């Protein structure tokens, strides 16, 4: 058995229905349609629900349920009565049962706290994961930029080396061409010098440069024959 210490029903009688309501139900019309009716509706509600539902699960719905139930019959049989609000106090239950509910509530509260702590821990873990992911993405981006910079520097160095090689080859080619041109011109000039008169002159200069002095009773004779010299040169 459970009991309710107080149930407040705030109501109002429309002045247009005062005479009809008092004529049909008397001055204590509220006993018929509110006081007795509320007891009936409370009994119906408690009979249709368990103690767990009445005391905890559906207690927040009792006020509105009672208001709707009373207003429904008043609108049908006593339309002048307007139910403004209903307030039901927490029911009284046996001490042992209440203690069980309190223990259950404590355990439920502990469970809710544990769930909330778990949610907080999961949120913190998720936050740490996002931070780590963001840090990893940042490091990856930095590495990518550094790698791109390194590749650009290597490509620039390679290009510079290629330009230096091309310049060196061009310079060496120019030197080779110049040397070839010089040798060719010298060969052409020497070829133009190879005339009989020039050769004879060079031979005479060579003989003159190789003059020797002989001491003794006999001095060697030297015969300068143009034909011998030409034959010798040929």
TrEMBL record:
Pfam families: Band_7 (PF01145)
One Gene Ontology molecular-function label: ubiquitin protein ligase binding
Transmembrane segment boundaries: none
Keyword Glycoprotein listed: yes
Topology with respect to the bilayer: Single-pass type II membrane protein
InterPro entries for the chain: Band_7, Band_7/SPFH_dom_sf, Erlin1/2
GO biological process, one term: SREBP signaling pathway
Ranges where the Band domain occurs: 9-125
Keywords on record: Endoplasmic reticulum, Glycoprotein, Lipoprotein, Membrane, Signal-anchor, Transmembrane, Transmembrane helix
Family as reported in the entry's similarity comment: Belongs to the band 7/mec-2 family.
Name used for this protein in its record: Band 7 domain-containing protein
Protein's organism: Aegilops tauschii subsp. strangulata
């Amino acid at each position: 058995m459970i009991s309710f210490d107080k149930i407040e029903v705030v109501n109002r009688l429309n002045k247009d229905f005062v005479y009809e309501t008092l004529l049909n139900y008397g001055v204590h019309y509220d006993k018929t349609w509110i006081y007795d009716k509320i007891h009936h509706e409370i009994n119906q509600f408690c009979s249709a629900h368990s103690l767990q539902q009445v005391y905890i699960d559906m207690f927040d719905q009792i006020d509105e349920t009672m208001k709707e139930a009373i207003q429904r019959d008043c609108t049908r049989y006593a339309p002048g009565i307007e139910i403004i609000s209903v307030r039901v106090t927490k029911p009284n239950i046996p001490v042992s049962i209440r203690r069980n509910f309190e223990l259950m509530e404590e355990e439920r509260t502990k469970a809710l706290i544990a769930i909330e702590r778990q949610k907080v821990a999961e949120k913190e873990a998720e936050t740490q994961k996002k931070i780590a992911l963001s840090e990893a993405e940042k490091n990856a981006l930095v590495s990518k930029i550094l790698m791109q910079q390194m590749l650009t520097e290597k490509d620039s160095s390679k290009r510079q080396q290629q330009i230096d090689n091309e310049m060196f080859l061009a310079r060496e080619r120019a030197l080779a061409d110049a040397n070839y041109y010089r040798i060719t011109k010298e060969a052409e000039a020497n070829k133009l010098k190879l005339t009989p008169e020039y050769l004879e002159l060079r031979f005479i200069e060579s003989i003159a440069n190789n003059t020797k002095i002989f001491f003794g009773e006999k001095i060697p004779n030297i015969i300068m024959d143009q034909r011998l010299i030409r034959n010798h040169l040929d």
